[in-house]
Amino acid sequence: MSKYPNLLFAGTALFAFLANPVMADKLGLGRPALPEEIAAWNLDVSPDGTGLPVGSGSVEDGEMVFSDNCASCHGEFAEGVDNWPKLAGGKDTLDRKDPVKTVGSYWPYLSTTWDYVHRSMPFGAAQTMSADDTYAIVAYILYSNDLVEDDFVLSNENFLEVEMPNADGFIVDDRETAEAAFWGEPCMENCKESVEITMHASVLDVTPDTVDDAAPAEQPAAEEVAAAEPASSEPAAEPATEPAAEPAAEPAADIDPALIAAGEKVFKKCKACHQIGEGAENKVGPELNSVIGRTAGTVEGFKYSDPMIAAGEGGLVWTDATLAEFLANPRKSMKGTKMSFSGLKKEEDQKAIAAYLGSFSN
Amino acid sequence: MSETSKNSRRSFLKGAAAAGVGAVAAATTARAQGTPDPLITEVQPWATGLGDGVDATPYGLPIEYEADVVRRNVPWLTADPISSINFTPIHALDGTITPQGCAFERHHSGAIDLRKEDYRLMINGLVDQPLVFTYEDLERFARINRVFFCECAANTGMEWAGAQLNGAQFTHGMIHNMEYSGVPLRTLLEEAGVKPEGKWVYVEGADASSNGRSIPLEKALDDVLVAFKANGEALRKEHGYPVRLVVPGWEGNMWIKWLRRIEVMEGPVESREETSKYTDTLANGTSRKWTWVMDAKSIVTSPSPQAPIKHGPGPLVITGLAWSGRGAIKRVDVSKDGGKTWETARLANPGQPMALTRFYLDTSWDGKEMLLQARAMDETGYVQPTKKMLREVRGENSVYHNNCIQTWWVKETGEAENVEVS
Questions:
Q1: Could you give the domains of chain B?
Q2: What total of structural domains would you count in chain A?
Q3: Which of B122, B210, B419 is closest, CB to CB, to A119?
Q4: Under an 8 A CB cutoff, do A188 and B165 touch?
Q5: This prediction's pTM
Q6: Which residue of A has its CA nearest to B123?
Q7: Helix, strand, or coil here: B407?
Q8: A267 and A322: one domain?
Q9: What is the pLDDT of residue A216?
């Protein structure tokens, strides 16, 4: 042990002991969890494969499933679009400046990829991938990282045979020894001879000024908060997606403002992918101004799926009714659509969203 | 008026003139003597008419003049605002308790609406009896009240490579400090009965990100809380209503919101949030994992870039916050010259374990430039390091756990800027 025994827990054990009420016996509260309930929630997968369901999927199938459900954000080759996470690449970059951390270059366990994709992706439609689709997607992500061949099939049986390049790249927190010098008596006087300013934040000028400030002209590269890249000397990367344009709803006279307001709330489910209102742009999904009355698949500059274009050419126009049908279960009502959204099941939500979208028609 | 205060006021005015204070300082300097202040000599509308009746706002918000004391985000940081973060306006707060309405938010798939009626908490895995609790069940266990800080491991992460964001809110605002009411996790685990093979708990939320983390059983049985109230009222939606986990002293990502499941396990799950993220890559490419505890840290909140000195030379209160995940803050030192000399600040109250401590340095400003720094020391003897010391051990590629000493360059005008010093 270090010279700071039990540091992690020091000061808390005694405190917890003194202050917590003494609980001698069980209170008999709660009820037994049923096996079906445990099965529904106990989905996590451990590095040794515990928790993996029986199943399999090929790189080939994975390419299709990935293209349909993931590529709009993560790119056709898992290379990442705009600021959305990269899932492939970055080999041998971990000891360089600004390492690129991906499933291939960084993740120590394959179980983590399977588990995360299965439970947390696609963003906005989590828990919609079947076990076989998940095996296929994971196989495809491995392939995109040059870790398996194109005829590879991943299953619960060969899962542990896959070698992750950075499996040995981690050590357990060693701050107490590696940073032992931080413990001690601090200097109070004549601690240094001179002090010079070596860098000014104002030079970068990336601080937002007002509450609704748009992104500044120049941005340091940043992927997502957790990986918030520190300032590099030359911040040059593309802006993250601009903050969603504030919808300036002009309710049409015959529509119930309360319904529009309800629709605005429902629209939160769409915001990850769609913008609406002044200055709205195509993002993961097309911008939705004047979508009611518009022929499906016709926003300029947006790369629609083939089925969406075909539907438009076949005469599909977005009305309250067609919209409700599509939104109830997008991927069921339009096989092959790129919109990976699980659906608006409630009729009142479908009505509300139609009213809200309608309020942006001109 | 007593002789001493007259003198100090006179010297203050003289000082202000001498320093040629700029626009910032001029704004609130005392009125010239001789002209009576109409705010005093004339009857003001509020002193004759009537104010709002009760119930004007059934749930009160801060008065409109405080409208700028709000959470802010930095849009370029993330791909979209649903998996994103914003920052507590620490530059404008005092004391230690963070009001819930301006306490920072971090979501991985948005803040969800979860009614108490729809809330279920499951304990499963290596337990004698897997259990399901409703919200009402939780309220029937003996509960306790504790104040703890919650800091995102990425707080100050943007500052690793150099001074970047101009304001304490942005550099240090991924933190809040609340009084929680809740049930010790230990109580719930004992209700289910932990089997001897159980060494870890895996905790996850009800939102789409599920955001699961593994916690050693030792910590889970020590001081972790299953909390449902903060600062006396229900948790806010953005902080996990109706129930969140409180993991004292450890990184905010582990404080699972909308807590839905606790699984007792033999080993850690090694979830995405404890492998891909929240690990710390060193210069040689090796990465530290399980870096849970938040190191001792402090920040001068005023003066600071968003809270310049407006009053010119003379009496000045320098204030800020200090905290440590390893226990109580024992001492905070403040330097005005970029770390050459240090003075020990006054703690507003004795430090409490793993909670924010407010410090004050009641001083006199000579109107000259300052390079303001604060340095925290906790009860284990850990002293907050400089950025240079951190980089020497950790290299240049770290994202999380930046607890370095921060420098504000306070100019003669009273304005302040985020700088890095040698």
A1: 3-47 (no CATH), 86-150+178-289 (3.90.420.10)
A2: 3
A3: B210
A4: no
A5: 0.79
A6: A33
A7: strand
A8: yes
A9: 36
Which CATH number is A156's domain given?
1.10.760.10
For B333, which of A186, A196, A213 is closest by C-beta distance? A186
Do A344 and A271 belong to one domain? yes
Judging contacts by C-beta atoms under 8 Å, the chain B residues touching residue A111 are 270
Question: What is the identity of the amino acid at B24?
Answer: V
Both A21 and A95 in a single domain? no
pLDDT of B282? 96
Lookup result for tokens 């600071």: B304
Judge whether A192 lies within some domain: no
Residues B143-155 have pLDDT tens digits of: 999 999 999 999 9
Domain extent, residue A33, equals 1-42
pLDDT at A21 over 60: no
Is B130's CB within 8 Å of A38's CB? yes
Domain assignment present for A111: yes
Task: Mark whether A23 and A106 lie in a shared domain.
Answer: no
- Separation of alpha carbons B245 and B252, rounded Å: 10
Chain A partners within 8 Å of B123 (Cβ): 30, 33
Is residue A209 a contact partner of residue A216, using CB atoms and an 8 Å limit?
Answer: no
Contact A29 B133 (CB under 8 A): yes
- For the cut 70, the answer to whether the pLDDT of residue B71 exceeds it is yes
Could you tell me if residue A194 is inside a domain?
no
Q: Are B293 and A6 in contact (CB under 8 A)?
A: no
Average pLDDT, chain B: 92
Contact A114, A45 (CB under 8 A): yes
